[in-house]
Design a protein that fits this description.
single chain, about 250 residues, mainly alpha, two-stranded antiparallel ribbon, two-stranded antiparallel sheet, 8 helices, about 10% strand, elongated
Amino acid sequence: MSATLFGLSIREGDGMALLATVLLSFLSTLVGFGSRWELVLPRRVSTRQVPQSDVVIKYPNGAFLIVKCNEEVARALYWHPERCKYKRPATSYRLISLTGTLVLMFGVICLGNATLNLQLGFAASYIILNAAYWVVAALPQQWNWDLGCYKKEKVVYCGGEHSKNYTTALWKAIAISGTTNWVRLAPDIAPTTKQWNLWLEEAARVIDAQPCIRDEMTGEYIFPPWDPERYLDKVLASDGALNDEAQIPEDFMV
């Protein structure tokens, strides 16, 4: 695009447009050079064996995402803050910023004294550039991030990912993670009432007695045969007095 404007400026004999093209084109290179940075991901210093560190993500619409991984992967991708390391020291960055400001001012002055045709060409160029930036920002994240160093596998569960209500979605998340410890770590996952505490205790007993098992024929994981909605209705109807043992059929086998 700069080469096109450069050629048009020479053909039209517009010296001001030629200077504006050189200055404004050099400006983006100068700013990029001064602001160059690299992403620093956290790395474990210790070489000891890291434990399993599953990650549970709750979305505002009530959906859950369970990521089964070790602590090293969880630290790098989720809960450890990444930081940007700039290549230029502070003094050099300030000098480059000052130079870039002067280049921008002189470039705008030259563009203001260019002919109308070249000014329209500059306007069209910047419109195209802004549209291209918007398109790049709207692309899917997997097009911009290379996660090839991680091996990922999507686990399929019987009944699919969709749930008819929030209670069922929460039970599936508990069954997949294998514990209820994470539910009380955030105040907005489940109500802090006696009835819901009993429901969580019962869910924990069910999943401890019969974890999710994998069907060797289909490769799908099967949830324990427990109705979270029915048990919650019983607890709410009895005002939290219900606290019987989990009933799991003995013939629950694949």
